[in-house]
Amino acid sequence: MRVRTVDDAIRQVAEQWPDALALADAPNREAFFAGEPLRLTWREVDRAVDNLAVALTAIGAGPHVAVAVQLPNVVELVLTILACGRIGATAVPFPIQHRRHELDYGLRASSARIIVTGPRPDRPDQLDTVSAVVDDLDTPVHIATFGSAIVDTGTALTVDTTEAAASQGVPAGPDEVLTICWTSGTTGTPKGVPRTPSMWLASGYFQVDELNLLHDDRILCPFPLVNMAGIGGILVPWAIVGAVLFLHQPLDLPVFLGQLTSEEITYTVAPPALLNMLLLDDSILAGVDLSHLRKITSGAAPLDPWMVQGWDELGVEIVNAFGSNEGAALLSTATSVPDPKLRARYFPRPSAEGIEVRLVDPDSEDDINETGRPGELRFRGPTVFGGYLDASGAEFDDADFFRTGDIFEWADTSSDPWLLRFVDRAKDIIMRGGMNISAAELEGLIAAHDSVADCAAIGYRDATLGERVGIFVAPAGDHEPSLETIVAHLRDMGIASYKLPERLEIVDALPRNALGKIAKNDLRDRWRTTEEN
Fold first, then answer.
1. pTM reported for the whole predicted model
2. Are 162 and 45 part of one and the same domain?
3. Which of 111, 312, 384, 483 maximizes the CB count within 10 A of its CB?
4. Containing domain of residue 492, as a range?
């Protein structure tokens, strides 16, 4: 029987497997958070959630009260999110990279009344920063901290696994807001994304069913537990099946690889660039035991077919994932798309009950039911949220489908039914003289050059054509490509001339936001500022 709330799932597995290992910190925890690494059984998780729920209630948490959380990937972060659900409060997780500007905006937008944080050796000013933000707010926000440090008038929290009186709070109902996560904010002010237990469970069961996750799985989470990838892709499925969750603060590669071996990990997630690197350098994987590893989910950027094929030859299935905080979700697995090279670029329609997708011409609003014609991907169903905080509802079309802002096309791959192929972000199309150019396509071609480690394509302003194509390149090693070299490479690939870049800037590294996505607005602003000066 499927549970109705995340809290129901925790209670159910704690009763079924009380002495089984449930949750474990990374072995290097003390490098980024106070306290020694913790390892808890399901009984201990359930008790710790109860005790933390009581402590949060004592400082004002309760039904519909927003509790902000800024913690790294440690046991305390998981417990805080679960404790909020147990008393009907709303957890508002912030990436640890967020500083004063983002915290100030998020605390105000969510109307948070409590913030849970703690001292961090890698950021000594963490508590001072939070205190300064709270002092500037118009309404009081109580600061609660794990660890030995405590701010003035604040509250100390602990991980207490002793048996105590159960929390008297009212758990969040299936359709009450459990979390508010944040969009990445690459195109402006971050947007709050409220999600209920029923939405999270719909996403979680979709993952469990498609990935065939089981109680025996040992899951390693190197993604921040602050958004869909971490919560919907890892935390909720873990709670549903009662597996073991091993935490990792991204990214310490030696620690990550060590955990794969020492903890006998069966499932994890990783960005495409890391998976590429591990295959390209045999010395990195030397000594790493992959014998238990069944699957790795990857996404957030197009996957290279050779990479998916390469891991397949090592006996590890790469699952191609597309998703968003709002609840859009596509998974391409070895079951749905057996050919590894096809799986790298194509997705089947979601098979989960109630999830609907459509491709729409954004200009005419007509449905697209033919191959090779790009359109906006839209979603409707139980995984999809109900709207942004303080939003107008423009994120949905007239049929209540969520507008993802992502461009896909139906691809004729001789499969039945057709598969979906990602083309680009709608906001990431370069428009040169009336011709639309996919930045993702261009970046994929440029990245294949030996001298390129990383790249980003953007449109820069032009009085005649509207935009021209420019690229930022981080060189590979000592090789520094020229614009002429890249253009010659692209010409050799046989692409249309209007797609060729006309400006190049070499950078040490591309700017990225807290979730690892390239901050293209920063790159555009960089050139815009230069032009204006």
1. 0.82
2. yes
3. 384
4. 433-532
